[in-house]
Amino acid sequence: MARSLAAEDAVRAHRPPIGRAVFAAVAGRLFHCLLLAFMFELADFSVASNKVFASDTPGFVGSGACAACHQDQARSWSDSHHGWALRPATVENVLGDFNDANFTLKGLTSRFSIRDGRYFVETDGADGKPATFEVKYTVGVSPLQQYLVELDGGRLQPLDLAWDVAQKRWFHLYPDTEVSAGNGLHWTGPYKNWQARCAVCHQTDFRKNFDPASHGYKSQWSDLTVGCEACHGPGSAHVAWAEKRTTAAPDEQLDPHGWMRRTGISKQAVEQDMCGPCHSRREALGADSTLPTGAFGDGYRLSYLANGSYFADGQQEGEVYVLGSFLQSKMHEKGVTCTNCHDPHSGQLVAEGNAVCTQCHNEVGRPEFPTLKRAVYDASSHHHHVPGTPGSQCVSCHMPERNYMVVDARRDHFFRIPDPLLSEKVGSPSACLSCHTAKSAQWAADAIGTWYPEHKPGKTGYGEAFAAARRDGLNQATISGLVEVASDASKTAIVRASAVAEIGDQADAEIASRLLPLLSDNSDLVRRAAVQLWRNAPEGERVAVLLPLLDDKIAAVRLAAALELSIVQMEGLPAEQRSKLRTSLENLRASMAASADFPEGQMAIGGLAMATRNWDAAKDAFAEAAFFDPQLVDAWLSRARISSALGDVADATSVLSTGYQKNPGNAVIALNLGQLFIQQGRLEEAETTLKTAVGATPDNQELRITLAIVLLHRGNLADAKLEIDALLAVAPQKSDVLMLLGLWEVASGNVAGARKTVRKIQGLYPGIQFPGPLDALSRMP
């Protein structure tokens, strides 16, 4: 790794998005079986016991235990996205065409078939050869359905082939991506593993049970799909109350009906913490499902408005789901929550079309939102489009959609007022121009100005700041703009936190001090982001500022502080602080261990081990990362660099040799391996390695420079000149290239030419130091 604190980079890295089916319900779909029978059928697919019991610690009982009393809710839920999140592959649940259907893409034909009521797919396996796999489960209902197969060690993997429910066709989720067997992004690879990436949001009470020794899983759950208790929490105490109509348990954590209490927070916060973990881009702090009654930050690390995930003005770009967008909105600021618009059991909107918006946005208003301007919104006088057309729909302007997983259009939950000039300035989509494709941003802005002369679009206060930082990099001007955003209390918490995250470890002492109050901000998002501003502070100052955050009420903040303090020399701390930091680091290790089946999780474990100088643990973790994803170049490099730093050059060479076999022609591995060969005087092997890499990546100047040095040392002047000429053609004034030319001229006996080259270098780079053979020439008059 480029920096010793590899853990920070690994923790912040986003896992490659593989997608989750976010499914619109199919209105009017009829079940062939009775509702209660269906509910109890689902309960049968439970690994955990469904025994009902009363206890101080409630247990999970399965959705089947709920349906008898809550029939209306169960009926709504049964055909919802949640009800279809994961189901066994049966004739009732499989929507795709498995009647000997074929699908061909890039020369690979996959076949879908049914045998004895079981569903099979013949496609390329982990070794690249055709193989037949049995479909175990279905994922989702609309607009697409995916399919899970079970591989060795209990690993469940979703196929990249999915069924388009509307068009009734097979399609590939990544049709434009070349992903062959052996690549971590292949459907059999680690980045597509169900237990690691998907299960906690598609199942209830999911326990991963990953075995690091065998790399297998013995996963368990209480409900196969997203059942009642995924949102309501474990129900055994409530069932006991329902049967006896007496207080479920003498526990202050339970209400009289047996549900877990959560007091002192708003309805919005309750729903945000309940729904947010599965409707957001985030990293889990643990391996298993969390209780819906916990704070979001105690189970997850919400992603900031990062480049590639969000456009600079905050619009959705990558697959970010809902929460990060919603937290930016005025709707969230005013207390709107999920169930104001969505029925919690069916998942459907509470009203059709514009009516879901006009339940609040009308001339009468709504008491719980007293600041909402009372006016007629669902009329041409507001939207200025012909009624009944797409332009007259609230969502067309305020919730523009973006396509994911090829066929899945998802609406942005920012609820923004369109600003075509800002979109043009920062490079984000424009809701206006998505329909009026032949028009300009200025045309759209003029129309808005005519319709709403009181509205003043333009500067948002953060879109420009983020765009400048992404475009120009972090410099004094762009950092100043980000600091202004981060310091502005009128901005939403996720915007301020994202501004801090953009600055990251580039903060100097002045900026860190100016933003010091953010460490005690009301928002844990802001506190967590502010921690990294102190990474480069002197150790004593960093300890003084961050140690109190090891007691923060939110786990994500505590873990962030522990990570930043992991490189502290613990011996110099007082006993009490030393003990606290040790405990916090153990908690951090435990959190990272929950992602031990992620390649990037092992990189984080290795980075923390490096920070705490546990070299053996670091090497083991990087070896595991390379095992999971042999194409993860940083894993090979990090493992080798530890051995090299410890003086075990032979081991470092062996590691990189294996890494190069797994990644033939990789320039970075080849360069580092070549340098190790040079260090050991193994010039022939260095030449062979570097030549193959240059052949694979001929534009890599550093590779050619190193190869030319090796060729000069071996006396192969003709091949060395070929490399030098290739470099001169693209970098005629680069100092390293001119030095090589001078060395070649000396080796060829062309001293006059070498003196001329030396003078040219001196003219371009006054005061530059020359290597031995050229040093004497540089001193000549």
TrEMBL record:
- GO MF, one annotated term: oxidoreductase activity
- In the record, what lineage is assigned to the organism producing the protein? Bacteria, Pseudomonadati, Pseudomonadota, Alphaproteobacteria, Hyphomicrobiales
Q: What is the protein's species of origin?
A: Mesorhizobium kowhaii
Q: Which residues form a coiled coil?
A: none
What Pfam families is this protein classified in? Answer: Cytochrome_C554, Paired_CXXCH_1, TPR_16, TPR_19
Name this protein carries in UniProt = Uncharacterized protein
What residue spans do the TPR repeats cover?
Answer: 667-700
**Sequence ranges assigned to domain Cytochrome c-552/4 in this UniProt record:** 195-233
**Membrane-spanning segments:** 21-40
Q: Which residues form the signal peptide?
A: none
Q: What's the superkingdom here?
A: Bacteria
Q: Which UniProt keywords apply?
A: Membrane, Signal, TPR repeat, Transmembrane, Transmembrane helix
Q: Where is the Doubled CXXCH motif domain?
A: 337-364
